[in-house]
Design a protein that fits this description.
CATH architecture of the largest domain: Alpha-Beta Barrel
Order of helices and strands: EHEEHHEHEHEHEHEHEEHH
Number of helices: 10
CATH class of the largest domain: Alpha Beta
CATH topology of the largest domain: TIM Barrel
Shape: globular
Helix content: 40-55%
Number of domains: 2
Strand order of the largest sheet: 4-3-2-1-8-7-6-5
Length: 260
């Protein structure tokens, strides 16, 4: 399993400093293509961000950008149309006709005929629109159950790769065989002072605040270094998510799911 650090477009230098090469950046806000050297960078179209701000991304400009810069990215996503799987599919066709190869994406709630179509035609696809359902675990799992009932035979027969946009939950990653996933959860160390700890024997990510109660924090073994600058908390969180990635990869290998 490959874990991409979403929101990397504001922290390229910090990620480089700690040796983390798997970034997810958004076309909607990424300005530093020149900073990509030997990193494994996933480009999201930024369609959801643009949609939430009442803006629209021009697909022809996106195609031009990919033709010029696509070689810099390991993978780049289709320009999805929120709530319209047919228009999303049309954008896939437009971009392919322009000579680029975007990652097909299907959003939560779309007719599963699109998922079957993508699974049959492509070797790497993505499931999106999942973040709003992170606090609705029953709905999220019901949807993912339906998706992976379709996807699993393709994963087993042709090693279909599936990316989960906004999936940073160990519980979800343990249950479904995503090839890759991304999350901006690691950024909570800067925004909210949250530090996380991966517990490999339990395959769980624990989280807590560094500043709510200093005495309790230190008595429980909290690292005083994390009480300081937010960059230290981000570095700590990056290391813990990388440990999670390694553990989840081994778990799926033990279940017979491997990728080259």
């Amino acid at each position: 399993m490959r874990f991409y650090f979403a929101g990397a477009e504001s922290f390229e230098d910090l990620l480089k400093e700690v040796g983390s090469k798997q970034w997810l950046v958004s076309y909607f806000g990424f300005k530093n293509v020149h900073k990509i050297t030997d990193e494994d960078v996933f480009l999201d179209s930024g369609a959801f961000t643009a949609w939430s701000k009442g803006k629209k991304i021009d697909i022809h400009k996106y195609a031009d950008y990919l033709k010029e810069n696509g070689h810099k990215f390991t993978v780049y996503a289709n320009l999805d149309v929120i709530g319209d799987p047919e228009a999303t599919l049309e954008n896939q066709r437009i971009l392919e006709e322009a000579g680029v190869t975007p990652l097909p994406t299907i959003h939560y709630g779309a007719d599963l005929k699109y998922l079957t179509y993508y699974a049959e035609k492509y070797n790497y696809i993505a499931l999106g629109g999942l973040v709003p359902y992170s606090k609705e675990p029953v709905l999220l799992r019901n949807w993912l159950n339906k998706c992976f009932k379709i996807l699993l035979p393709y994963i087993q027969s042709k090693k279909l790769k599936v990316h989960g946009f906004g999936i940073g939950s160990a519980e979800i990653l343990k249950q479904y065989p995503f090839y890759s996933a991304d999350s901006s959860g690691w950024l909570s160390g800067g925004k909210f002072g949250t530090v996380v700890t991966w517990v490999p024997e339990k395959l769980k990510m624990l989280s807590g605040s560094h500043f709510k109660d200093k005495d309790t924090y230190t008595k429980r073994g909290g690292n005083l270094k994390l009480m300081g600058h937010y960059n230290e908390r981000l570095k700590h969180n990056i290391a813990e998510y990388r440990k999670m990635e390694q553990s989840i990869t081994k778990l799926w290998e033990s279940r017979g799911i491997t990728y080259e």
